[in-house]
Amino acid sequence: MTDGIKRRDFLKVIGAGGAGATMLGCSTERVEKLLPYVIPDEEITPGVATWYTSVCGECPSGCGVWVRTREGRVVKVEGNPDHPISGGTLCSRGYSSVQGLYNPDRLSSPMLRGADGFSPIGWEEAEELLAQRLRESGNHIFLGGRMGPSLTNLVDDFLSVVGGVRREYEGLSEAPLREATRIAFGRNRLPTFDFAQARLVFSFGADFLETWLSPVEYHRGFAQMAGVDEHGSKGRMVFLAPRLSLTGQNADEWVPLKAGSEAVVALAMAHVIVREGGDAGPYYQRLLEGYDPRSAEEASGVPAEEIEKLAMRFLEEKPSLAVGPGVAGHHRNATAANLAVHILNSVAENVGRTVRLREVDQGAPALPYGELASALSAMAGAGVVMVHGTNPAYSLPSGAGFAEAFASAGFRVSFASAMDETAELADLVLPDRHPLEAWGDSNPRPGLYALQQPAMRPVADFDSKQLGDVLISVSLRLGEELGVGTFFDHLRNRWRRIQAIAAPGQGFDEFWREALRKGVVGLPVRATEVPVPLRSPDAILNFDVPALDGDGEFALVVYPSPRFGDGKHANRPWLQELPDPVSKMAWHSWVEVHPRAADRLEVQNGDLVRVRSPHGLVEVPVWRYPGIREDTVALAMGGGHRSYGRFAQGMGVNAMDLLPAEVEQPSGALVHLATRVSLEPTGDRRRLATIEGSSDQHNRPIAPAVALSALGHGGAGHEEEGHGELKEIQGLGGFAPVPTEGRAEDFPLEGSRYGQYDPEANPRWAMVIDLDKCTGCGICVTACQSENNVPWVGEEQVTMGRDMHWIRMERYFERVDASRAGPLDVRFLPMICQHCGNAPCEPVCPVYAAYHTPEGLNAQVYNRCVGTRYCANNCPYKVRVFNWFGFSDVPQPMNWAFNPDVTVRSSGVMEKCSFCVHRIRVVQNRARVEGQRPVRDGEVVPACQQSCPAEAIVFGDIRDPHSRVAQLTQNERGYRVLDELINTQPAVTYLKKVTFHEVESGEH
Amino acid sequence: MKKPWQFVAVSGIVAFATLAFAQSQEGESPPSAPAVTTVHPIAFPHNTHAGEFKIDCQYCHFSAERSVDAGVPPVSSCMGCHIIIRGRNKPEEVQKLRDYWDRGEPIPWVRIYKVADHVKFPHMRHVAKDAGALECQECHGQVEEIEVIEEVEQPLRMGWCVQCHRDNDASIDCTVCHY
């Protein structure tokens, strides 16, 4: 290295330069401008958040949201507590919608394909071009995802004017359930399920905590059922599926039946119940005679005695509820499987109690994949094909031939707001508005309406236009009238009809304002409270275990990702970095293989394998997962985008590549459980981007449990005992060393004077987390990230263990046995900063950046922190995270999503959970200004508590004996993690999970 | 052996050192108001408005009692009076205001008071009558006597904040301001 830079010279230069820069940096003053409003917006007070109600546009569930804006820009969304579906919370996908709004890969203008790729054009020109193409030809096709009722209506008006048909396609279709409901009860719509009322739930693979139907609502209901109440009573769930999803991991028992055998097991149970006197009607009575437990054992691998026992419990532990199978279980007989579950519910008299069927019909039902297939074949003769809100070029198996069919159309238009795989194939891309900046409405179920209102002006970086307004403008160019000037007018016209039913006496403007303020309008609807009898089917269904393609060793389960759904949300870095609740992996894909099967293949975690089906091949690392049958492997949807922006492109593999393009009859849903695969190690391996330290507690009481039978006996039977009173004072050496023998009980030290909790005049903030309610879903992680400006770091940095989440969702496998039906025990523990009263991080900080506040918080002062990382080394809970490389420097305009109440930390600074201290200050300031009143219990709500659909988290002042948190701390299930070992005096009390099986002491 | 990169680097160091020296010289004198008066887009006289006419501070800085931000008056607030009043002393400055209004533009005031990003200063907690009940002048000086607003009397340094918190028995815990 003679010509290059010598290391010593380089360091000299860098050292001097760095010093110079530092000195300059301290004293250079930049002139800043202070720009006032010209005319103030009456809704905006600078420095005070303004909230708007709206509707979450991330999936068709239709959760109501509250959008938090500051100075006219959206900074966060939260659930609308008045909305019966969201009930005050959202899922991770919902919380990430601000990253869809500010996504840097959104298109900045309409794009037109030329000879050498896309180039930007103006809206005038683009609309004129679309109008011209529509005029020149006919037989247009509009392929849309699920839209609000008013937009759907406008699209239909438009298509009747220009001559075309609308086809609906959602990647995650529940068509088999809808079709089964039609066959069984004559209602062509989805039923709703009352989990909260049930005492025993059988889920035949329905992932109702993550993706199935209405996950936020069912999550809440499930937690109410499954959490132990004050009478020591608790409902239970049995999960019957070949693979444990997050929902499965929350079950109390697992019946690992063979993939596709749900129908025979459900029918065999119904057979037993009918034998015991249940009523199935003459047709089904005859049908059930052919499905006894003995024959079901053969098909499913579940012992006949087990099926008998389960059936008797389903009959006796009333009210019970059976659900499923969901998208992952959509096999060639999926409608029959859903019908079998309906039969089971019906003979156990659950219909009308926990299974609700609504009376009112609501528009045309969603057209499932079968309709798409006919649309695909019609594309060759179509004039203009328009695609909106769906991405079939990605989410359909390549065998469906979407690209070829799309190419055969006369002219192709995409309304995608970012360049996705379908938009890449289009001639013209007209970027749509994000739901947070556009008008719309939703009607998630009969009688329930909500308005989607823009919470801010459209993001200026992206010249977008709402679909409705584009269609109105284009029809005007064609010389046609749709009767309205803007989509907003159309929406108001439609809502006049709703007003006529909901509030006939009220003026429309008053009704409209009220609807916007509350965020939801309810119409009277009759829900069936009485049993609906089963009808004889009008179609011949096959209940048998379906055949799978190929002769590979493993059945392949392809399931909707809890983070990305069918892939629509893959362009959000928060979701990419959110560890998958099951595997704890981020960014890339993995294939789940049972450890014994992996041993046979001689593969370890991270070994790359080729997963080969008759339809395709993907190469993906192995994750050894005890929660899957030995003869089954599983892949998540949502990875492997070939386009769709910097955060999605090239992350993982697309599981749809392995599937055939086949349609289940009669529902017309895409078949997901369709094929067998073989696994072939490539010999290569990679490091997994996982946050999992261990799935085993190594005999430490981190997440202990207590058996239900042991509750109420004064603590006997708990796995571990012996926590003392929470000491209120923390202490440490202060500025001078203090002599001590170093025993745990010597702390806090006498005479310590730095950073003490002050019992005189202050609250002591504390938290209780109920592990019997916590489902490990990870919604709080995303909500915390949004609230506290927590950065994401990317796949490579996660691989190095530098992820920066303030909440780490620990998951421990205590009892997971895929070989036979039996009790299941998976423990979850959200690990956050414990705000220790005697915190190990505090005395080791050389600059007092980590210290204890008079309110009992373990604080981190960012401007003091010099980044020694001693505190992280000394933290027994590993909750401190370090910003290595300016991870807060996010691409424009994502910085707009920053919460202005929380400092954006720079690189070189340690950070961790602050107990949402900014929210505490907001409440304290408000209480002070409002006549110096005291802060009320429950007034301070940290972001994690706000987001938890299970309501597992309670926060408050532990010194107030009447506060909820103080009372819950006294609960016999309460314990503090590692406290008895190291005397950290945490402010977080966990309540032990309650199990139905006995917990052995060695089973921590 | 020529090392051009070293030459560049060394000149860089010299430049830095010179600047650093100049800075440190300046730093030796106690912090004081900058010698050069800030040039605002409009020569707004605080003394005329707050002093002579005794307009309450919060008439213009409208959110000080209820928000963390005191609020910069919108152009429409200025025009509330100046649509009639053309200005006795300097009508040309009022004309500038009217021009901004006619063009629908915000006035790009030069920011004088600013705390660092990692500091939270809630105005209402200091100003509201149930909270600190402080006069604006406690921190911002005798604004009613100053023609061109400058950072007066004291720079906004932490020691100064803490001293006041100590004197008034307010919390001096770090997380009162830093989070």
Describe what this molecule looks like in 3D:
The complex is a heterodimer of chains A (1004) and B (179). Chain A is of the alpha/beta class and 1004 residues long. Among the domains of chain A are: 175-356, Dimethylsulfoxide Reductase, domain 2 (3-Layer(aba) Sandwich), CATH 3.40.228.10; 554-685, Beta Barrel (Barwin-like endoglucanases), CATH 2.40.40; 705-1003, Alpha-Beta Plaits. Helices cover 26% and strands 17% of the residues of chain A. Chain A has 29 helices and 39 strands. In chain A, helix 9 crosses helix 12 (304-316) and helix 9 runs parallel beside helix 13. The model of chain A is unreliable at 1-28 and 720-738 (pLDDT under 50). Chain B is mainly α and 179 residues long. Chain B has a domain at 38-72 and 109-176. Chain B is 42% helix and 1% strand. Chain B contains 8 helices and 1 strand, in the order αααααβααα. In chain B, helix 4 packs across helix 5 (91-103). Classes of the chains: A alpha/beta (1004), B mainly alpha (179). Chains A and B meet through helix 1, strand 1 and helix 26 of A and helix 1, helix 4, strand 1 and helix 6 of B. Strand 1 of chain A pairs antiparallel with strand 1 (109-110) of chain B, so a sheet runs across the interface.
The most extensive contact between chains is:
A-B, 52 and 58 residues
Number of distinct helices of chain B: 8
Are there runs of chain A of 5+ residues with pLDDT below 50, and where? 1-28, 720-738
User: Helices and strands of chain A: which structural class?
Assistant: alpha/beta
Fold blueprint:
The complex is a heterodimer of chains A (1004) and B (179).
Chain A: H1 7-27, E1 33-34, E2 50-55, E3 64-70, E4 73-79, H2 92-95, H3 97-101, E5 111-114, E6 117-120, H4 123-136, E7 140-144, H5 149-162, E8 164-168, H6 175-185, E9 192-193, E10 200-203, H7 215-226, E11 236-240, H8 246-249, E12 253-255, H9 262-275, H10 281-289, H11 293-300, H12 304-316, E13 320-323, H13 334-347, E14 355-356, H14 369-378, E15 384-388, H15 392-395, H16 402-407, E16 411-414, H17 421-424, E17 428-429, E18 440-445, E19 448-452, H18 467-477, H19 487-502, H20 508-518, E20 521-522, E21 554-559, H21 573-577, E22 591-593, H22 595-601, E23 607-613, E24 616-624, E25 632-636, E26 676-685, E27 705-707, E28 765-770, H23 779-787, H24 795-799, E29 808-815, E30 822-823, E31 825-831, E32 850-852, E33 858-860, H25 870-874, E34 881-882, E35 910-911, H26 917-929, H27 943-947, E36 953-957, H28 964-969, E37 974-975, H29 979-982, E38 988-991, E39 993-995
Parallel strand pairs in A: 7-8, 7-15, 10-11, 10-13, 11-12, 15-16, 16-17, 21-25, 22-24, 27-39, 28-38
Antiparallel strand pairs in A: 2-3, 3-4, 5-6, 5-17, 9-14, 12-30, 18-19, 19-20, 21-26, 22-25, 23-24, 23-26, 28-36, 29-31, 32-33, 34-35, 37-38
Chain B: H1 4-28, H2 46-52, H3 57-60, H4 75-82, H5 91-103, E1 109-110, H6 123-127, H7 137-140, H8 158-167
